[in-house]
Amino acid sequence: MKWVYVNQPSAYIKKYHLTEGNDTKLVMKYNLEQQSVRISSEENHRLFFINKTGLWHNKTILKNEYGVEIGRLLFDKAHGTGIIEMERKKYYYTFQNNTELVIFEHTVSHPLAVCDLSSAPSFTSVAANKYSSEESACFLLGICWYLFPLTATEQLEYAGATTVA
Questions:
Q1: Which tens digits make up the pLDDT trace of 69-113?
Q2: How far apart are the first and last CA of the chain?
Q3: Residue 15, in any domain of the structure
Q4: How many domains does the chain have?
Q5: Domain encompassing residue 132
Q6: What is the pTM of this model?
Q7: N or C, where is the chain less crowded by C-beta within 10 Å?
């Protein structure tokens, strides 16, 4: 998989494609001003909001278009590693050489996904890392949304709805 930057006429919107081979799996538009991200695939179109929190702004809250929290992100800028909790599931991630995003469950030697970021240049430079924590959150959100879709039952449970048997 690979995130590819697509030129946008607006300075406040960054557009990326998640590609696998020659296929575009997702289109992601990150709005710097509104701290929002739109993710689109052939089947779905979603809007998410990114909120920074924590004493050193090292925590990120991910909310859906209705303002409901769907995940949290902890990011260690010094080491380029962190934890992402998405819909009651916990994954770890690391940025290797500022060119690869690796998502894993238990150990980095057994990754769930490796995503190339070399074609996704960034205009920001935070600490030793190439991407801001908000951009990192967008990349992670997009990959998790693509790799780990919720089943219909999980969507109902997460929304707090009950099913009638």
A1: 988 988 777 777 889 898 788 999 888 877 788 899 888 888 988
A2: 40
A3: yes
A4: 1
A5: 2-159
A6: 0.75
A7: C
